Structure formats: structure tokens, C-alpha cells
Amino acid sequence: MTELIHKLEREHSLEVEEYRYLLENRNDNAAHLLAEKAVKARVQYYGHDVYVRGLVEFTNFCRNNCYYCGIRAGNKNAERYRLTEDEILTCCDLGYGIGYRTFVLQGGEDPIYTPKRIESLVHRIKEKYPDCAVTLSVGEHPKDVYRSWFSAGADRYLLRHETADAEHYARLHPDDLTLDKRKRCLYDLKDIGYQVGCGFMVGSPWQTAEHLAKDLKFIEEFRPHMVGIGPFIPHKDTPFKGMAAGTLEETLFLLSIVRLMLPEVLLPATTALGSIKENGRELGVLSGANVCMPNLSPKDVRSKYLLYNNKLSSGAEAAEDFELLKARMKNIGYDVVVARGDSKIKNN
Ligand code: 5AD
């Protein structure tokens, strides 16, 4: 174990079988050593700074039917909403005043929010806040659509690959969604010049150490600028309602591995992590994460963007509670900074 961790620290790479061995033999000692090395690596590149992103969940309409997701098209119990462009701009105004310099526009694949509308939205935000980064997270689209948003000023794109094993992917998604299509989008985004984020859920149904090892190898080879990793949490109105949630410990272990693999990566302590454990975010940062993404959506819609049960959107998870987040990070020796917080990984 120890030898593998040292190898990962030294070479930023392991064989798939070695990743698998690490995961299958996870224990407290190994987790401790990994976290220590992960923190050392993150401090080397980013010091004790924590970057924040204001997350605007602007529509929960979605044409897709991913089996795990609470806003899947088939969930008739979901209360649907869609913010107007002006409402989104108001969120950014509020966020800018608080200190956010990155806005993440996240939504389902909502056909009413056409590529043209998103393009104009990006234009308006960048015009008003040229010193801010705009991150889009709106699913799969043709390359020319991604290109039009990039030309309008979008800087980054989040699209989790969900699982790097095609068969596992097929068990989490209906037939019209495939790993090949997902990967195609990720390569297109990178080729266009976005800072790109991929990622996966920990403990998703039927996930094995072999699947996770493949996820790690995919990330190692793809070299994303950002990696989103959070525990799977069942949602009551989905086919996976009875499934077990992913664990805190395994998520933290994976965060540390990813930090050692890609020392310069932007790695959020995700909302899902904060939702399964009160101090999940802090534990994420202490395992190598360096980003937090508090919720900047209007308060009355926050509870409707319910990807999973008991999703947090209050306290340090709420963008307006900047001071609370700052205090909580200060408490563990980290500083929330007002900055765009770009990735130090160059596009390749
Ligand atoms: N539990 C945890 N994460 C989820 N996501 C969607 N549904 C769930 C769930 N039930 C994640 C997916 C998606 C991201 C926006 O949220 O990985 O890419």
C-alpha cells in the first residue's frame, strides 16, 4: 500500500490494477497517508487558498432520464422551474457583490433554453463582469454549439463522465445515452479550449473497485482541469430510490488520489459531500480539495433543484453565507479568496 502511494506521489500515475489494489485495500492508515500527501501537493500549487464559485441552478427541466437523478424527465413529482435571463443576471449581481468571481450556470438539458439563449446569457454576463469566469454545466451538445458559447465568452465547462466503464454507464442511463457520446463531448470541449471538468459519483449502484480504477485511469489520461467527485445519494422518486448511498470515507480517499494524480487540478469539495456529513466540505479540503461551490440560485427555487434526497442549500452551502464559509475554512487553516481561480493546467 505505502509503496503504491509513494509511487503515485512520485509519478502521478499508476496501472489500472494498482489503482484497483489501492481501492480494494483502503484502510485508515492508507487514507491518512494519502490525505497528508494530497494536502502537501495542493499546498505546493495553491497554498491554503480555497476558490469559490457561485452556482446558479437556472433550470431543472431536463430531457434526459438518468436513473439516479432527481430531475430526470420521468420524475412527475419534480416541481419544475426555469429562471429568466434577468433573474440569472440578478443572481450574478448579488454574487459579485459578495465576492464571487466565477459563476457556474448549471441546468438540466432544457430544450426551451436553446443554444442561442444560452449564448446571449453568456454574452450579457461577460459584458457586465469581464473580470469573472463563466462556467457552463448544461450537458451534451454538438461541437458547434459548444464553440458558439466559447466564442460568447464561456471559460469553463463541467460535464461529469459519470463512469468510465461502458457497461456500467449503460446500467445508470437509458439507451440513448452512451459513454462514447459523453467522451466525445469532453474531447470536443477540450479541443475548443475550455477548461474542462469531468467526474463521477462514488458508490453509484453496481460500482466496483474495477470501475473506479477505470475512472481514475480515464482522468489520468484525459487530464481535465477540474474533477467533480461526490457520493451517490439516492433520490426517492427515481428507480434507484432503494439503493445505498456512497460513503464519506471512500469519497475522501478518491479525492486524495485524484489530487496526487493531477497536483494542479481544481477539485471541489462537493455539495453531495457536505450533504452526507455536516463537516464533509472541511474533510474534503483536508483530503486535497481546493474549491467550494455554494448555491447562488434564488432562495425560493433552491429546494427544487433536488438531484438527491436531503441536498444541502443552506448554511455554508448558501452563497450569501460567505462569512460562515470563510469562518469554517479559517477554522481548519484555509483562506477563501476573491479570485477567478483558474486552473494551472495548460490546455493540451
Ligand atoms: N447523487 C449524487 N450525485 C448525483 N448527481 C445526479 N444525481 C445524483 C445523485 N442521486 C450528480 C451527477 C451529475 C451532477 C450534476 O450531479 O454526477 O453529473
Key features of this structure:
6-stranded parallel β-sheet; binds 5'-deoxyadenosine; 3-stranded parallel β-sheet; 9 strands; 43% helix
Write the layout of secondary structure elements.
Blueprint: H1 2-11, H2 16-24, H3 28-46, E1 49-52, E2 54-59, H4 85-98, E3 102-107, H5 115-128, E4 133-137, H6 143-152, E5 156-158, H7 166-172, H8 179-192, E6 195-202, H9 209-222, E7 226-231, H10 248-261, H11 271-276, H12 280-285, E8 291-292, H13 299-302, H14 322-331, E9 335-337
Parallel strand pairs: 1-8, 1-9, 2-3, 3-4, 4-5, 5-6, 6-7
The chain binds 5'-deoxyadenosine.
The site of 5'-deoxyadenosine (5AD) has 12 residues, from loops.
Structure description:
This protein has 348 residues and is α/β, with parallel strands linked by helices. Helix content is 43%, strand content 12%. It contains 14 helices and 9 strands. A 6-stranded parallel beta sheet has the order 2-3-4-5-6-7. Strand 4, helix 6 and strand 5 (156-158) form a beta-alpha-beta unit. Helix 3 (28-46) packs across helix 10, helix 4 (85-98) runs parallel beside helix 5 and helix 5 (115-128) runs parallel beside helix 6 (143-152). The protein binds 5'-deoxyadenosine (5AD). 5'-deoxyadenosine (5AD) is lined by residues 68-69, 160, 162, 201, 230, 232-233, 235, 272, 307-308. 5'-deoxyadenosine binds at residues 68-69, 160, 162, 201, 230, 232-233, 235, 272, 307-308.
